[in-house]
Amino acid sequence: MFYCSRSFTPMRLFGYIIAVILFSSCAPQVTRSAFLSENVHKISQEGIKEAMGLPTSASVLDDGRHLWVYKVVMKGAPPMVSLPPPPVSTYGGGQPGAFPRSNQPELIPGTPGGCRQYTLTFDSSGVLQEFSEADC
């Protein structure tokens, strides 16, 4: 007969679920640079198109090589967001001392945004030969 001295409580189950969620969010994410580095001389234009979508611009060089440019904009909040103070009635039902009150707007720091440009060069047969990455 199998006997387990530990009881399987809902709280323990909840703890296991939280642990699984936290550890799964730590899985490594493949960046565009890493993806491109791993696939130089291996991947075709079709493979790139499936992985990254259509390029922002494309051209053919005089020697028959293809040049694709991707511009990736990372959106962020403005540097400082000014929120007006809420009306008094939302602070604890308007009861004095329920929450601190302020007549000044609240300044919330934003998140940085930016733009990355990836320039990909394919040979005349359509295989990725090199790439570069820069701010745009």
What would you note in describing this structure?
This protein has 3 helices and 6 strands. By secondary structure, the chain is an alpha+beta fold. A hairpin with a 5-residue loop joins strand 1 (57-60) and strand 2 (66-74). The protein starts with 9 loop residues before the first helix and ends with a strand. 7% of the residues are buried. Mean pLDDT is 76; it is low at 97-102 and 104-108.
How far apart, in Å, are the first and last alpha carbons? 68 Å
Could you name the ranges where pLDDT drops below 50 across 5 or more consecutive residues? 97-102, 104-108
**What is the 3D shape?**
elongated
Largest beta sheet: strand ordering: 1-2-5-6
> According to CATH, what is the class of the domain at 32-75 and 113-136?
Alpha Beta
CATH topology of the domain at 32-75 and 113-136: Beta-lactamase Inhibitory Protein, Chain:B, domain 1
Structural class: alpha+beta
Q: Overall mean pLDDT score?
A: 76
Percent in strands: 25-35%
